[in-house]
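Open question from group meeting: does this chain pack into something compact, or does most of it stay loose? Before anyone orders reagents, we agreed to write out a predicted structure and look at it together. Recording both the input and the output here so the notebook holds the full record.
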Amino acid sequence: MKDRNYLERIKTYCVKINTYMNGVQNVNEFLKDEQKVDAVMLNLEQIGETAKKLTLKTKQQFPSIHWPSMIGLRNMISHQYEGVKLHIVYDIAATNIPDLLKKLSLSIL
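Structure tokens returned:
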């Protein structure tokens, strides 16, 4: 039951990121909006934090999701915030997050 709630939280964070990225056409537009960058990074951090709480059994039900990368990104954002490469954050937000949301939305947990 807890894992279902965690997955729902991750989906909520993905939806928020998608909302923040709506209308952003390229990395330069993203980088010009400091609030957008901060909002996306906070939600990426929350995704990683929540992913850490999932059981191994639940993670194994999503073999195409690379959970260690999410958790690693969370650690990087938390501990090296100013050292995070923002073009990578943009790529994750623009490409990986919509894909993650799609995969999780297909879940039958």
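Observations to bring back to the group:
The chain has six helices and no strands.
The chain has a mean pLDDT of 94.
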